[in-house]
């Protein structure tokens, strides 16, 4: 068994609570589905948002999906000039027997530009 990281990102159009939660939920559901994740296999998750998003903590979406015993943390991305705006990123640490090559990273909406080839 290994602890491996799975990455993902998405964007929203507006800094609104419901939009942040909906986009984060969509991203998490795809990560769960594509990687056959169970909450008990998730060691922790780090969510980051760009400085233009502050209407809600994206980790709340994980709690609403039942990740109640998972260590979750939210942070701000560093404000690199000309970087993608209104972006939510996630790094999920999972305990798995799968190889790193078998894990599926998920990039949605305008975040597909962050990692071409990983888009859904």
Q: How do the strands and helices of this protein lay out in sequence?
A:
Layout: E1 2-11, H1 17-35, E2 42-49, H2 59-64, E3 71-76, E4 87-96, E5 106-107
Number of domains: 1
The CATH architecture classification is 2-Layer Sandwich
CATH class: Alpha Beta
The total of helices stands at 2
List the secondary-structure elements in sequence, H or E: EHEHEEE
Estimate the strand proportion.
25-35%
At the fourth CATH level, what is the homologous superfamily? RutC-like
Rg from alpha-carbon coordinates? 14 Å
Q: Fraction of residues in helices? A: 10-25%
Low-pLDDT parts are none
Structural class label: alpha/beta
User: How do the strands of the widest beta sheet line up side by side?
Assistant: 3-2-4-1-5
Largest sheet: 5 strands, mixed
Tell how many strands the DSSP assignment holds. Answer: 5
Mean residue pLDDT: 93
End-to-end distance: 27 Å
- What gross morphology would you assign? globular
| CATH fold descriptor | 60s Ribosomal Protein L30, Chain: A
Explain what the structure shows.
The protein has 120 residues and is of the alpha/beta class. The protein has one domain (2-113): 2-Layer Sandwich (60s Ribosomal Protein L30, Chain: A), CATH 3.30.1330. It is 21% helix and 30% strand. It is built from 2 helices and 5 strands. It has helices at residues 17-35, 59-64; strands at residues 2-11, 42-49, 71-76, 87-96, 106-107. Strands 3-2-4-1-5 form a 5-stranded mixed beta sheet, with helices on one face. β2 (42-49), α2 (59-64) and β3 (71-76) form a beta-alpha-beta unit. The chain is globular, with a radius of gyration of 14 Å. The mean pLDDT is 93.
């Amino acid at each position: 068994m290994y602890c491996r990281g799975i990455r993902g990102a998405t964007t929203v159009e507006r800094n609104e609570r419901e939009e942040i939660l909906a986009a984060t939920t969509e991203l998490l559901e795809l990560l769960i589905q594509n990687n056959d994740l169970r909450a008990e296999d998730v060691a922790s998750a780090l969510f980051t948002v760009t400085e233009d998003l502050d209407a809600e903590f994206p980790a709340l979406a994980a709690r609403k999906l039942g990740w109640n015993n998972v260590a979750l943390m939210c942070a701000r991305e560093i404000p690199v000039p000309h970087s993608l705006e209104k972006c939510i990123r996630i790094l999920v640490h999972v305990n798995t027997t799968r190889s790193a090559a078998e894990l599926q990273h998920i990039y949605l909406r305008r975040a597909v530009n962050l990692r071409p080839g990983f888009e859904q």
